[in-house]
Amino acid sequence: MLRIKKLDIFIAKKFILLFFATFFICLFVLMMQFLWKYVNTLIGKGLSMEVLAQFFWYMSLMLVPRALPLAILLSSLITYGNLGESSELTAIKSAGISLFQSFRSLIVIVVFVFFGSLYFQNVIGPNANMSFSRLLISMQQKSPELEIPEGIFYDGIPGCNLYVQKKDLDTGMLYGIMIYRMTDSYEDAAIILADSGMLQSTAEKKHLVLTLINGEWFENMKSQEFSGTASVPYRRETFYKKKIVLDFDADFNMSDANSLSNNAQAKSFKEIAHDKDSLEQSYDSIGRVFYNDIKRGWVITGRTAKDSVRAARMAATKTFNIDSLYAKKSTEGRLEVVNAALEKVNDDIRGLDYKRLITADGDKLIRQHEIENIRKVTLALSCILFFFIGAPLGAIIRKGGLGVPVIISVLVFIVYFIFDNSGYRMARGGMWTVWFGMSISTMVLTPLAIFVTYKANKDSSVFNIDAYKNVVMKMLGLRSKRYITRKEVIINDPDYVADAMRLEAISNQTLAYEEEHSLLKAPDFIKVFFKYSPDHDIEAINEDLEAVIEDLANTKDKVILTEINKYPFMTTTAHTRPFEHKWLNITAAVLIPIGVFLYFRMWWFRLRLMRDLRVIRSTNAVMIKRIKEITEDKMQ
To answer: I need a surface site. Which of 25, 341, 372, 614 has the fewest CB within 10 A?
Structure first.
């Protein structure tokens, strides 16, 4: 029978309080980041407080699923960081309770959050997203004179497209204006060019007044009475100053949501499945129509390809030379054939481009629905994933508060965001399959969650900075300096006479070793990687030297203590071979770039050993001289 223990309640209380606090912090941070995207939509529109409140309310609802994983990551990190910092985690483990057992109550809470996130994204999130999209469109349509961008066509004003080359924000003047006005059809379009102008709203906010300066107006005069004529009359007007009144209701109103029917983010699981099935059937039928048209020999313009079919049948029953037939034609005939072929090819190209656009739009809509279907699940699943990253990391680093946990949470979330956003873009563009692109962030962080959970449960020091520092220093051949200070309490005085004799012997050994091995020369490549023989002389010298240093560290003499710190820490094997195992050395030799690097690295170690031996001899000479002075003073 499952029993709720006091420890579970204790940890759950700590976690829940932190979870609610971090959730609102994360939600606020995400809202501020999200707000920068729409700051231009809010400024200068004269929106009421009610509309702004709706904007922030719908925005917060949309960002709740994204704030939940980050809040769980941060709160679990702080919870177990506090437990470790106050030694409560040590007491829990000493009572025979493993780290994973202490997760029990929090796992239950996180699972509830997982299902809550799924429910929220399926029921509340789509409605919030639809309301936010409608509100955003309506806000963008209010005061369009502030929305006009530079260098691109703006279609926010009904019935016309407006292009502005440059805009003066201080005076409101527009420069380099080009306007395409649409009435009943594209054939009745009017083109207006002007050097400058100004767009202003009327007092009742029902119309826009466009004042144009120094421009021209081109308008097609085609109408029903001219529909049968070959030439179409047009009107051209040159003006110095002209005012155009445009119908536009700038009063704030909720936009119609019909244009948002294909927004997959505003749909539940059931709606996504239904609409995706409808889209697939619709575009499959379009594809079948295209296939049947090509099969029957039809082109996009509706003209038959009987000539092509007849020519194909003739080619099947009779062989003839195309070039000879082409050569028999006159110059005009050849030009006519070439032009007909080019026209046919251009028609086919236009038809294929048209079909490609239609099918590409359909594929994009279907992918968007598939992406949103998977994203709802992966976003909820990241709550569980982030818990098994945050809680073990908190138990490992044992740091509470908002310092280290915030830094680690931000780093983890950045990695998650990079993979999630990259996968989304690749899946949306069709470069990756949808399931792979939307699952790559989960696939990348799942091994990390398993690794840190295992290490934390086994009390492994994953974040032992000194251990990583030693490994890096060993790889790069770096060494720390010797640091020996005077001891406060000395039990046994050093044996100066014996130490002096040992130092003199060490000096003779280092000199003999240097003369015998010729450390200045380049090492033998074959002996290094294939015929390794151990070198115990340096190991013996290093052991004797460390023993003397340990004994002389008990001295009170400042000169000896100063000279002791000049002795280097010697590496006893790095000058002989790159690795301990013979098969690793052979492998490194076969891999030429690695072998060359390791060869020159070992040569550098030989040169450094030669320099260390000379430093040892010079330091020994000073030490021996000082020891003689100390012994003579004692004898007197």
So the answer is: 341
Identify any residues that bridge with 199 across adjacent strands, giving them in sequence order. Answer: 210
Q: What is the DSSP string of 556-581?
A: --HHHHHHHTTS----SSTTT-S-SS
Three-point CA angle 214, 218, 224, nearest 5° = 155
Q: What is the dihedral of CA 515, 517, 520, 526, to 10 degrees?
A: 160
Among 137-151, 294-308, 322-336, 484-498, name the most confident range.
484-498
The pLDDT of residue 385: 92
pLDDT digits (tens, 9 = 90+) for 311-335: 555 555 555 567 777 777 777 877 8
* pTM exceeding 0.70: no
Q: What integer is the mean pLDDT of 439-451?
A: 90
> Do residues 177 and 215 make contact, with C-beta atoms less than 8 angstroms apart?
yes
User: Taking Cα atoms as reference points, which of 179, 120, 133 lies closest to residue 38?
Assistant: 133
Do the beta carbons of residue 174 and residue 148 sit within 8 Å?
yes
Tokens read off for 48:
């009421």
> Rounded to an integer, what distance in angstroms lies between the CA atom of residue 89 and that of residue 66?
30
Q: How is residue 627 written in tokens?
A: 């020891």
Please report, to the nearest 10 degrees, the dihedral formed by the alpha carbons of residues 443, 444, 450, 455 taken in order: 170
Contact 77, 405 (CB under 8 A): yes
Return the number of other C-beta atoms located less than 10 Å from residue 83's C-beta: 24
For 403, the 3-state DSSP assignment is coil
Residue 230 reports pLDDT greater than 90: no
Q: How far is CA 41 from the centre of its chain?
A: 27
Residues 6+ away with beta carbon under 8 Å from 413: 70, 73
At a CB cut-off of 8 Å and minimum separation 6, what does 265 contact? 125, 126, 129, 372
How many whole angstroms separate alpha carbon 142 and alpha carbon 251? 7
Taking the C-alpha atoms of residue 363 and residue 512, their distance in angstroms, rounded to an integer, is: 80
Are 246 and 207 within 8 A, CB to CB? yes
Selection from 409, 376, 435, 437 nearest residue 62 by Cα: 376
Distances (CA, A) of 112 to 117, 282, 314: 9, 39, 74
Return the higher-pLDDT residue of 14 and 404.
Answer: 14
Reported residue count of the chain is: 636
Q: Of 69-73, 260-264, 341-345, which gets the smallest average pLDDT?
A: 260-264
At 53, which helix (H) or strand (E)? helix 49-85
Where do runs of H (alpha helix) occur along 458-575? 465-476, 496-517, 525-529, 537-552, 558-564
Q: Is 401 exposed, middle or buried (0-12, 13-18, 19+ CB in 10 A)?
A: exposed
Q: Quick check: 428 and 368 in contact, CB under 8 A?
A: yes
Residue closest to 78 by CA, chosen among 400, 353, 302: 400
Q: Is the pLDDT of residue 381 over 60?
A: yes
Take residue 380 and report the two structure tokens written for it: 């909820």
Question: In terms of C-beta density within 10 A (0-12 exposed, 13-18 middle, 19 or more buried), how is residue 179 classed?
Answer: buried
How far is it, in rounded angstroms, from Cα 483 to Cα 488?
A: 16
CA distance 191 to 219: 6
